[in-house]
Amino acid sequence: MTVEILADPQVKLAIDRLVDIARSDTGQSARVANFLLAWWNGDDWGHFPIADLFGVDRPIAVDMATIFAFLGQYPGAIYVHAFGEHYREIMADLVEMWRET
Which residues in the chain come in under a pLDDT of 50? Predict the structure, then answer.
């Protein structure tokens, strides 16, 4: 099932911006990867320490808040791959990049 029809277009744009940051090599990339991987599967790939928000620029925090607000609107779990199956591969790439496997 795809949830793109439920989401404001800004949600997908926020996801894509965060993915781009997580794939890069900036001081904030690890924090963004932590956020995305915690959403995808926190039990296996680690949780997102809320204090990590202190270490990201405001636009990044806004993108995280956009996703968090969207997820809070629904009673069930919505994972990133609900926005398109290609996100499974992206998350797997982030695991390989940021986690020891």
Answer: none
